[in-house]
Amino acid sequence: MSDQERRKEYRLVQEDLSDQEIIRLEKWKKLQEKGLEVFPHRAEITHAVHEVISEYSFLSKEELEEKNISVRVPGRIISVRKMGRATFFHIANFRDKIQVYLREDVVGKENYELFDLLDIGDIVQVSGKLFRTRTGELTILAESYVFLAKSFHPLPEKWHGLQDVELRYRKRYLDLIMNPVSGETFRLRSQMVAKIRRFFDERGFIEVETPMMQVIPGGALARPFKTFHNALGIDLYLRIAPELYLKRLVVGGMEKVYEINRNFRNEGVDSQHNPEFTMLEFYQAYIDYHQLMELTEELFLYLARELHGKDEIPYGEHTISFRRPWKRIKFMEAIREMSGLAPSRFEDQKSLIDFAATLTPEKRPLSYGKALDIIFDKLVKEKIVQPTFIINPPKEISPLAKSDREVPSEAARFELIIAGMELANAFSELTDPFEQRKRFEEQAAMRQTGDEESHLVDLDYVEALEYGLPPTGGEGIGIDRLAMIFSNQKSIREVILFPLLKPR
User: What is the DSSP string of 180-215?
Assistant: First the structure.
């Protein structure tokens, strides 16, 4: 059969098959001819690879011999070293790897020769006894093995094939196969979310779910994604935040609620932003944003100790300390002291708006408050490394927050900045339905002037407030950015399994 005929016989997604891929397909065909089930339904296993390592890696050679431990372990072949009638190979899952010793005099000549039809990347189940080699490596002496899946494509070469960062994001499965660090990052993220749940559950919070499709997108200043519901004949928006629904629940008497939710914002993509992201939002009745700062310190310190066993963790070239208390700086003080702008620049509001427009040409600010927000984001935030609460920003950019008691033009609100990133946003919730409606209408007026991120008027939410929302503190924490901090990653794409990428 010619190479052209072989290519026609095997219809893979990648139609221009390499010589290696043709050879792999031929081997797979030979496995079929030998009567092997090439797409088996299940495998009878006793341990995953990482479970063998965690349970038995501390045992000495003598202890392993004494205990005579048998295991049945599945894994992907990632290396092979053949030496005549014996072969060493490693199998792995996304968390660990273990060596296997395959001997012809143990598995039999036919089964030993059958191994020649397997390739790096194939998945097998190995059954055998644990022992240590002369070099001390924990190893399975294979008594038998079972074929579980064929890798029809060769894996990337470890040190060169995965330098393409975009390939790692587009084909995350290859990243997880080849890079144990990636697997560890996502395992840590999973642990982090589980511990967040435990933290709030132990404090009497109730986990809830709120709509992802909303008639009126609210709870944040952001551009939404829009869709259409055919059966109801109405426009719907993917939520930009669950805030207004969670506060409806507080009105209903659920005094402590939280949600770990997916949000969608039709905005740019960079190292800190992905249009689809995960947030923790929680609300507690009868507290204000000062008490939320204390709860936030407690949460982050708890996570640092649970995930890393200490109060300080590395992040890039810095060491982040979560020891309490954290620094608290007023929004305008931070801008005046850290933006590099002369104090006189803040006296001319129009001039400052024009200056802010040069920082974001694609999104010109339409108000003084928005201009200040841009200046903080572009010139100040990146200079803040240690956990810092930036408190009392302008009320104008906080349409859902109470006014500060002492300075009514400021909001009773904070943003938490760590390593130049906003990790949390919280405030004493606005509970006055008349003031809330007024602010919604002001936001709607701004929207008419072209500000697509301004809040829409949600009269249903205003009506909920009219039934009485008690004094409430509410906060949102970015799970993805939090995972970046605790896994020491500089890009949000490293902590999202499938980040949004432009199609090729």
Answer: HHHHHHHHHHHHHHHHHHHHHHTTT-EE----SEES
